[in-house]
């Protein structure tokens, strides 16, 4: 696996993973989805890519901040942190029933993430 310019760390099987998946459709090969659960379960190469990427973003979908906590516990440094619930008012935090606005929330969050990552890629 080639080291991406930007690695987006998310909690596995979460709203943040869904948002990043949507965003990757427009961001291309320089950006990689890096589920922190892959590190915890021993998937080879993921942790190294997280450490070697030129820019690392941690994205959480709720105030539990699982991705951020696990990233820090595993000693992986990151450049930016985005919490979808706190920063964008996303209505589908982990472990709770999502609102009917979930589709809009995913689209809003993906658009926000795409804009942010495109800014980062211009600087790299």
The number of distinct structural domains comes to: 1
Strand order of the largest sheet: 2-1-3-4
| Outline type | globular
In the CATH hierarchy, the third-tier topology is known as Rossmann fold
Count all strands and give the number: 4
Let me know the largest β-sheet: 4 strands, parallel
Work out the helix count: 6
Strand content: 15-25%
* Helix and strand composition category: alpha/beta
Q: Uncertain segments of ≥5 residues (pLDDT<50)?
A: none
Q: Indicate the CATH class.
A: Alpha Beta
Question: Care to describe what's here?
Answer:
The protein is an alpha/beta fold. The protein has a single domain, classed as Rossmann fold, CATH 3.40.50. The chain is 48% helix and 16% strand. It is built from 6 helices and 4 strands; from the N terminus they run βαβααβαβαα. Helix 4 (66-73) links the parallel strand 3 and strand 4 (80-83). Helix 1 (15-27) crosses helix 6. The longest helix has 22 residues, at 102-123. The two termini are 20 Å apart.
């Amino acid at each position: 696996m080639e080291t991406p310019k930007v690695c987006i760390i998310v909690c596995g099987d979460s709203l943040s993973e869904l948002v990043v998946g949507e965003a990757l459709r427009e961001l291309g090969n320089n950006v990689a989805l890096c589920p922190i659960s892959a590190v915890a379960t021993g998937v080879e190469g993921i942790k190294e890519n997280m450490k070697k990427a030129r820019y690392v973003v941690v994205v959480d979908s709720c105030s539990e901040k699982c991705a951020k906590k696990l990233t820090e516990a595993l000693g992986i440094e990151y450049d930016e942190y985005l919490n979808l619930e706190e920063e964008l008012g996303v209505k589908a935090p982990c472990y709770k029933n999502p609102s009917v606005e979930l589709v809009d929330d995913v689209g809003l969050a993906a658009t926000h993430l795409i804009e942010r990552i495109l800014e980062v890629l211009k600087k790299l």
